[in-house]
TrEMBL record:
GO terms for biological process: regulation of protein catabolic process; ubiquitin-dependent protein catabolic process. This is PCI domain-containing protein. The keyword Transferase does not apply. Belongs to the proteasome subunit S3 family. InterPro entries: CSN3 (IPR050756), PCI_dom (IPR000717), PSMD3_C (IPR013586), TPR_PSMD3_N (IPR057985), WH_DNA-bd_sf (IPR036390). GO terms for molecular function: enzyme regulator activity. PANTHER family: 26S PROTEASOME NON-ATPASE REGULATORY SUBUNIT 3-RELATED (PTHR10758:SF10), 26S PROTEASOME NON-ATPASE REGULATORY SUBUNIT 3/COP9 SIGNALOSOME COMPLEX SUBUNIT 3 (PTHR10758). GO terms for cellular component: proteasome regulatory particle, lid subcomplex. Keywords: Proteasome. Residues 265-446 form the PCI domain.
Length: 489
């Protein structure tokens, strides 16, 4: 019985190899590893061959999508690629390029030069039939996909100079292509093209090229690439603090319906940053809240960034964010500096505010919110005055300067000027008695007898209705569904 089982295994085995102390049996599209295990690396000979088989299936999916002009197949191919991203190895990538492009093509030679070679590369073979080798895949979409795959691999391996060179070569090829099926691949490639230059520290070099690509995408009505390129240009400007140029471009760029939720969330975030710097805090708050609500739940880093800027904008508007904002899952540690900053502003203590700002100065600098933290000093004083006005019916200016910890040469005169401005702006409801040096507060008015609750409720209803309308517009249906219905009628 044992002999018959062993003979069955030997019959199913198509070939046998032994290289570098690693024994490998190859079966039909699968691989069984026995013997020694080497360390996991780019050249690991123990790579699961199912990854190569999955890449072949993705290539077939792209081909069928290109032939039938079905964009949803290209979308599916990109989603499957992102799942395989962490499993890409040099040996598998070399084998796939040989399968997809052919060993004698010019594109194969270019892309192979970026993939590091090693003695383990020959341990993954690609078996192709004669018909496959004769009719090589010359679909332009598949060629761009191979460029994209190599570019992602180089970025993951932190070889940014090689990634820059690879992306620059393929951009020339992308400018020639003009088809709806290539739009998805082009938008993805533009993103990684900009990312490679950003990681290399040369983001300003491609600004002119991105503007040219955006103009071409507009002329060709490539809406998906337009969305991506608008966000890349805004990120390029904001990376160098060119807020005026970013706003000029944003205001003149053509705004079409959002096709990608991820790109729309990025656009809202960049718009919120621009509005914040330009003192338009109300519009900025709406942009950050929408970006955080519409953003993917799995994108924790993006959610944290949106919440950080939203907290700053709330504080600049004189509002105190709810405590639940800082206790969200997987965000407590990242939002801790902003939580302590909010506590200092809520109390209205300048000394505590300065302590928190100095304690987390490196965090604020890394988040690029240091200049906004400086603006909050005036809000700390205002909130302190509001608390004092609500607690005392009459208090001297000297006591006010002492309570809010004014560190100036003449704190009483400075306190008088600050109080006068707060009264003029409507921050506090009180009067100044200059003769006696007092701040006399007026009687507290019941807020429910005013229109403020109605205004707050109306703003929340408008926000929910706006989000509902955007969700309805974002619904997608199969492209051929309407045609089938018309044929049935």
């Amino acid at each position: 019985m044992k002999l018959s089982l062993m003979s069955g295994v030997e019959d199913k085995t198509s070939s046998f190899k032994k290289n570098g102390g690693c024994v490998v049996f190859f079966k039909t599209n699968r691989e069984i590893k026995i013997g020694e295990q080497s360390a996991d690396s780019v050249y690991d000979c123990s790579v699961d061959p199912s990854v190569l088989q999955d890449l072949k299936e993705i290539a077939s999916l792209i081909e069928s999508g290109a032939y039938t002009s079905e964009v949803r197949r290209i979308y599916r191919a990109m989603r499957l690629t992102m799942k395989l991203r962490s499993k890409l190895k040099a040996s598998i990538l070399s084998a796939f390029l040989k399968y997809a492009l052919g060993p004698g093509s010019k594109v194969h030679a270019q892309l192979s030069s970026y993939i590091p070679q090693d003695r383990h590369d020959n341990q993954v073979d690609v078996e192709m039939s004669e018909t496959e080798s004769q009719s090589k895949r010359l679909v332009p979409e598949l060629e761009i996909y191979c460029y994209l795959l190599v570019l992602i691999f180089l970025i993951d391996q932190k070889k940014y100079n090689e990634a820059k060179a690879c992306s620059s070569e393929s951009i020339v090829r992308l400018k020639i292509m003009n088809s709806r099926t290539s739009d998805v691949l082009a938008s993805k490639f533009y993103f990684y093209h900009s990312l490679s230059y950003e990681l290399a520290g040369d983001l300003a070099e491609i600004r002119g090229n991105l503007l040219v690509l955006y103009r071409s995408a507009t002329v060709r009505h490539n809406k998906l690439s337009q969305e991506t390129l608008v966000n890349l240009l805004l990120r390029n400007y904001l990376h160098y603090n060119l807020y005026d140029q970013a706003e000029n471009f944003r205001s003149k760029a053509h705004q079409a319906e959002a096709l990608s939720n991820q790109q729309f969330c990025r656009y809202l975030f960049y718009q919120g940053k621009i509005k914040t710097i330009q003192l338009e805090y109300t519009d900025a708050k709406d942009s950050f809240l929408q970006a955080a609500k519409k953003g993917p739940i799995t994108a924790v880093g993006f959610q944290i960034l949106c919440n950080k800027w939203a907290v700053i904008v709330h504080l600049l508007l004189g509002e105190i964010p709810e405590r639940t904002v800082f206790t969200q899952k997987r965000m407590e540690k990242a939002l801790r500096p902003y939580f302590e900053l909010t506590n200092a502003i809520r109390v209205g203590d300048l000394e505590l505010f300065r302590t928190v700002a100095e304690k987390f100065s490196s965090t604020f600098s890394q988040d690029r919110t240091s200049n906004l933290i400086i603006r909050l000093r005036h809000n700390v004083i205002r909130i302190g005055l509001r608390n004092i006005s609500a607690s005392y019916s009459r208090i001297s200016l000297a006591d006010i300067a002492k309570k809010i910890n004014l560190d100036s040469e003449n704190p009483v005169d400075d306190a008088e000027n600050i109080i006068a401005k707060a009264i003029r702006d409507g921050a506090i409801d009180a009067t100044l008695d200059h003769a006696n040096g007092w701040l006399v507060s007026k009687a507290t008015v019941d807020v429910y007898s005013t229109n403020e609750p109605q205004i707050a409720f109306d703003s929340r209803v408008a926000f929910c209705l706006n989000m509902h309308n955007e969700v309805v517009r974002a619904l997608r249906f199969p492209q051929n569904l309407r045609n089938k219905e018309n044929v049935a009628r």
